Input
Amino acid sequence: QVQLVESGGGLVQPGGSLRLSCAASGNIFRINAMGWYRRAPGNQRQLVATITNSGSMNYADSVKGRFTISRDDAKNMVYLRMNSLKLEDTAVYYCHALTTTPFLQINDYWGQGTQVTVSS
Output
């Protein structure tokens, strides 16, 4: 089992910045990819950014150029630096990990989420 714990959410003014962190722990053999998803009020969950084990990154068009995903493999952590925040960035942000077991079984895990509120 793998556990994901997010932190860093909070209230920020439009144009401000915030840094989210996600720590993975437990029975980790291989993490293929980690990422951030969000669910805004009244909307479905959507991809924000992902990063693979090889370091390739993918961003939603709505955050491209403003958000940066990064990782620390030694600590099994992934981060999301959010700059130039907009009102529409308000959402619960979820950390996600895609893992492989020693027997090549693919599993995925989700964190509990952290609230990001952009408001003046």
